[in-house]
Amino acid sequence: MEHVVIIGNGIAGVTAARHIRKNSDKRITIISSESKYFFSRTALMYVYMRHMRFEDIQPYENDFWQKNRIDLIEDYVDEVNFEHKTLNLLQTPPIQYDQLILATGSQPNKFGWKGKITKFHVSRRCDCSCNGWFNVDQLFWKQFPSFWNQ
């Protein structure tokens, strides 16, 4: 059976997996070091504000992956050997693939526009357990109240 491996479980990787499953019986594996299950990154702010629960921003139930025969691996891809079609992971044995899809996301670009935030960069990471949320913004703005004036 042909094996499709997708690196990245954001919207691009998950959409690719869904379309492949809809149109074929190929073996599908999604690899991500970020989180086990896909969630709406754009809705994450509502979880931070406590307007929604984390499970509310997961478009699919956790059993969706098993029902659709999509394997999930929580690991980091350390090396891609294109010649041998092998992925070396940090904690998991190497994986062979027939087709590889890179859906690893993007990085922000501030373009050097006037008024952009230059002194500080605040980033948030979700441990996806949502048991120990803390409000990064409150901590940040208390320490740097003049930041709004930039």
Strand segment tally: 7
Low-confidence stretches: 118-150
* CATH-assigned fold name of the domain at 3-102: FAD/NAD(P)-binding domain
CATH architecture of the domain at 3-102: 3-Layer(bba) Sandwich
Shape: globular
Termini distance?
A: 57 Å
CATH superfamily of the domain at 3-102: FAD/NAD(P)-binding domain
Please state the average pLDDT score: 77
Report helical residue fraction.
10-25%
The biggest sheet amounts to:
4 strands, parallel
Main structural class: alpha/beta
Spell the H/E element sequence: EHEHHEEEEEH
Report on the architecture of this protein.
The chain is an alpha/beta fold. The chain has a domain of 100 residues: FAD/NAD(P)-binding domain (3-Layer(bba) Sandwich), CATH 3.50.50.60. Helices cover 20% and strands 21% of the residues. The chain has four helices and seven strands, in the order E-H-E-H-H-E-E-E-E-E-H. It has a four-stranded parallel beta sheet with strand order 3-2-1-7. It has a three-stranded antiparallel beta sheet with strand order 4-5-6, with no helix packed on it. The N and C termini lie far apart (57 Å). The C terminus is likely disordered. Keywords: FAD, Flavoprotein.
What does this entry show, briefly?
InterPro entries: FAD-bd_OxRdtase, FAD/NAD-bd_sf, FAD/NAD-binding_dom. With 150 residues, the protein is an alpha/beta fold. It has four helices and seven strands.
